[in-house]
Amino acid sequence: FLDKMAASVLLALLCLTAEVTLSAGSNKCVARNFGHDSVVCECNSTYCDSVGSATLPPLGQFSSYLSSKAGSRLEPGQGQVRVKSSGADLRLTINPYQKYQKVKGFGGAMTDATAINILSLSAGVQDQLLRQYFSSEGIGYTVVRVPMASCDFSTRLYTYADTPEDYNLDNFTLAPEDINMKIPLLQRAQALSPRPLSLLASAWSAPAWMKTNGALTGKGSLKGQPGGKEHKSWAQYYIRFLEEYAKYNLTFWALTTGNEPSAGEMTNYSFQALGFTPEEQRDWVALDLGPALKASSYPHTHVLILDDNRLLLPHWAKVVLNDVHAAQYIHGVAVHWYMDSVVPAEISLGTTHDLYPEYYLFGTEACAGWNPLDRGVKLGRWDRAEKYAHDIIEDVNYYVVGWTDWNMVLDQTGGPNWVKNFVDSPVIVDAKRDVFYKQPTFYSMAHFSKFLWEGSQRVGVSPSKETDLEYSAFIRTDGSVVLIILNRSSLVIEFEVWDPTVGYIPFSAPAHSLLTLAWNTH
């Protein structure tokens, strides 16, 4: 009997050990190669790689998280902080007394296409996917951009007030896309998130009957002048949107003055657009949107101007923010990442911050695969992850407080998109197999969204010599330090970090890698 009992205990212990080993290794990426320069990680209802809650070791040690072209995906590690320098040629010195902007957050957009793709999966896979983005075990998204009515990533053209001449918006109504798809998914995301989500609303076009061209697409702006009936009605449309979403317990942190106003002003856009010059935007905010918000139940909702490419800065900000009547209603300037290479960040973002330091800069849209020369979904492309990380580091180093990706989830064609404007996304679904793939760009976002909590403050970092490494450092609300490092070169780069409050961290950045280092200071 005792022998049998001993055997049972031994068997139980063996099973337990097997379980522990399994769970310890269960956060590994299930890598799939689709013939590009790196891999995707495949997830289903029962399995998905995860770094967990990423708690830091005690004082005197540091955590590291590595993603690389070679296939690492948020690979965790730990090490000792040293009392003495390793003598590395390159030293990155943290300066906690050089304080800059505080972080708002990171996230993506709940487009119609995103919602359609999430809902194309079985219930278990849907939950897994939402957890990957929003739970504390996932990558901690806190910002969600919500298009007001249709955009190109919809399957049809619609607004919430398509009845002609309905200036009082008596027939304003949310679409089935909102009620059946986006709202339930936003509620589920909020339920998974340990923090309140910061929802951000952006409209693509006013109803056709309010516009000079009588259409949702193409070159057209609001009829009449700011202060006139169309402009007043368009401002009230925003208020009605906030009211309708509030009925579902979804409140908005901010709204933008409209997606890419230059598109509807300067080009014959093939999808939904509403043109504004900076002067028209200034006057609409001063005379219509600002007063309407102030008089509504949502006077504390932030207003972000521009919501367009940063190459329009600082000119756009000067026109709008130099006007005291408009400026009193505005909180920040929203920028998109397209064409970022055309104008240096120092000239666009840096100058805007220097001129208007009381208004924050916020990234509201970015995606890979938008360029006609390199279009659509490319499963496993590492260079796209590097472009994301490069842009985020550059943005935050020039005072941007948050960065929002475009569609959170697309299908393998990069849609649906009614005008076939297919692009890439950090998560791609294969509905036939009931799985989803986490792209390298997903991990690029994770290196920031997972570790830079709201309220984290950027601090100074100075290199001992010129280097190919790109980096940015932050002190979090609990006093811990996070340093994010991108190596886009094809060489391993040895370096050490010196934090005067704790000591030296010797490390090396593999070729084509993204690295997050984090440590406690007390």
TrEMBL record:
It catalyses: a beta-D-galactosyl-(1<->1')-N-acylsphing-4-enine + H2O = an N-acylsphing-4-enine + D-galactose; a beta-D-glucosyl-(1<->1')-N-acylsphing-4-enine + cholesterol = cholesteryl 3-beta-D-glucoside + an N-acylsphing-4-enine; a beta-D-glucosyl-(1<->1')-N-acylsphing-4-enine + H2O = an N-acylsphing-4-enine + D-glucose; beta-D-glucosyl-(1<->1')-N-(15Z-tetracosenoyl)-sphing-4-enine + cholesterol = N-(15Z-tetracosenoyl)-sphing-4-enine + cholesteryl 3-beta-D-glucoside. It is a peripheral membrane protein. Coiled coil: none annotated. GO terms for biological process: autophagy; cholesterol metabolic process; glucosylceramide catabolic process; lysosome organization; negative regulation of macromolecule metabolic process; protein catabolic process; regulation of macroautophagy; regulation of membrane potential. Residues 1-25 form the signal peptide. GO terms for molecular function: galactosylceramidase activity; glucosylceramidase activity; glucosyltransferase activity; signaling receptor binding; steryl-beta-glucosidase activity. It is found in: Lysosome membrane. Residues 103-452 form the Glycosyl hydrolase family 30 TIM-barrel domain. GO terms for cellular component: lysosomal membrane. Keywords: Glycosidase, Hydrolase, Lipid metabolism, Signal, Sphingolipid metabolism. Its EC number is 3.2.1.45. SUPFAM superfamilies: (Trans)glycosidases (SSF51445), Glycosyl hydrolase domain (SSF51011). Belongs to the glycosyl hydrolase 30 family. This is Glucosylceramidase. It comes from Mastacembelus armatus (zig-zag eel). The lineage of its organism: Eukaryota, Metazoa, Chordata, Craniata, Vertebrata.
